Amino acid sequence: MIIETEGLTKYYGRIRGVEALDLAVREGEVFGYLGPNGAGKTTTIRLLLDLIRPTRGKARLFGQEVRGHAAELKARVGNLPGELSLWDNLTGRELLTFTSSLRGGVDWSWIEELAGRLELDLSRRVHNLSHGNKQKVGLVQALAHKPALVILDEPTLGLDPLIQQQFYSLVDQMKSEGHTIFISSHILPEIERVCDRVGIIREGQLVAVEQVTELKRKRLRQMEITFGVPVPVSEFDFPGVRDAVQSDRAVRFLVEEVPGVFDTIIKRAAQFQVVDVKVAQATLEDVFLAYYRKEGDNAAA
Amino acid sequence: MLLRSLFLKTVRDLRGQIWGWGLGTGSLAVMVAALYPAFKDQMGVYAQMMSNFPPALVAFFGDVTDIGEWSGWLGIEFFSWIPPMLAVFAVVVGTGLIAGEEEKGTLDLLLSHPIRRWRVVMEKFAGFVVATLLICALICLCLLLSAAVAGEAKDLGRLLLAGLDIAPITLASGGLALAASVVFRQRKLATALSVTVVIGSWFLDSLGKVVNVLKPYRPLALFHYYNGGQVMSTGENWSNVGVLLGLTAVFVLVALLAFQRRDIAV
Questions:
Q1: Does residue A266 share a domain with residue A123?
Q2: Nearest CA to CA, how far is B185 from chain A (Å)?
Q3: What tens digit of pLDDT does each residue of A30-56 get?
Q4: Residues of B with Cβ-Cβ distance to A101 under 8 angstroms
Q5: Which of the residues A66, A85, A134 would you substitute to probe the B interface, choosing the one with the greatest number of B C-beta atoms within 10 Å?
Q6: In this predicted model, what pLDDT tens digit does every residue of A98-157 receive, in sequence order?
Q7: Residue A168: domain span
Q8: Total of domains in chain A
Q9: Could you tell me if A5 and A52 lie in one domain?
Q10: Is A27 in the same domain as A48?
Q11: What contacts 24+ positions apart, CB below 8 Å, involve B231-236?
Q12: Is ipTM over 0.90?
């Protein structure tokens, strides 16, 4: 295992960070760490990097315990922190010179190649860079030494779609070269796009670990149909439709990926006067509530 | 070149402060020296004026028996004022070494690299030590210039030693600020605490010279161990230097131990 945690728990005073995490990430996989903001994703990553110390439990990288071996282990890890802060007064090249020196030197032709692929100008000062370009500097920094394990904390947060695609293609390349990638995100499609397996974290606890194919099977759409007159929700009570609610003349529900479900919905709706139809990807929270609700969890209320 | 290690980057980040504080305070020495010839001529008037002051007030400003001499003049008008000024530099930089990076969020990035925590503290503090020595070197250059301006060329060795004597008290103040910032985690709190201790100790030492109640507590003040202008008249007091450097080491050790154990704030 490249990453392994055993009952890993972190409390900040009385505030919960993560609780009894048992994670296992295999060599060469792209592991998605999915959860809403505040679920404990960054806390987990900071524990793995020994930036914070566990209240209980253990974290291991490459089979070695993080506590006591952090510096050696970090030589084989590249990290892009969430809410990245860089030394603003340096140019991209200066910053990478500095971070490379902390690793005892790296292959600059690879840095130039990365910068070229990401269309990143290394001669500009960091404080003059846009958010997206700062993220690129952070990514180049994380990949510069071709680490065996790459940890990316919300890497595409606030990036435009074009740059996101560049990120994803780099991740694909790293994967094909055998690197293990641990990527945290609260964006479901992103995880579906790049990952092999997904750990789902909610309120500090790992609620499920699934293959991405399984997660895709559980993909939900949010649908809202507005009618000319109020239509009772019971009209949409059939397999594949869940959590239907009526508000005034609109009916809202979640749709599962069941074959033929849209056909049934449209045909049923067509029996009434339809004014408007909206379909959207369900939010992560909807997916959680639909599939990963815990016993006695009243978050749905 | 200056980005090849954390130590060198720390010195690089302090470039502006080194030039600013070194030449800023150093130029005061030149100004004071320029006033010296005029003052020397008026010594009689000045001595009479001083004799009218309450002895306690006179003592507060230091040993004025030799103010008519070049060493006494520099001691009172320059060497007694510079360390409290440089304490500002020491506290600002000392609290910023770790807590500054932590507040900016760059400490997460730094510690994502294979560098041990004790090494971060040591390399950063070493950068501060070098910056302090460079400031003292600039002050020494200005002191040589001031000696030329005042036409006082004798005992240049002691003059330079007095310039370097500013370093131990500045290092101790910076060490205290570093330790406070690592232990208390908040830069503002650490700054307030360090300023209170450093400036408080300057007052304690100065007032202790004239207020009998405070006299026994003078050894508790950092500034009690600063030799100042006395280096020019009586030579360096190495045991005082030792106390300040020893305290600096203790402060850095506290910072090392505290930083080794604690969580890095987000």
A1: no
A2: 14
A3: 999 999 888 999 999 999 999 999 999
A4: 3-5
A5: A85
A6: 999 999 988 999 999 999 988 899 999 999 999 989 999 999 999 999 999 999 999 988
A7: 1-76+147-212
A8: 3
A9: yes
A10: yes
A11: B231/B79, B231/B158, B231/B161, B231/B162, B231/B165, B232/B70, B232/B71, B232/B74, B232/B75, B232/B79, B232/B155, B232/B158, B232/B159, B232/B162, B233/B66, B233/B69, B233/B71, B233/B72, B233/B75, B235/B158, B235/B161, B236/B161, B236/B165
A12: no
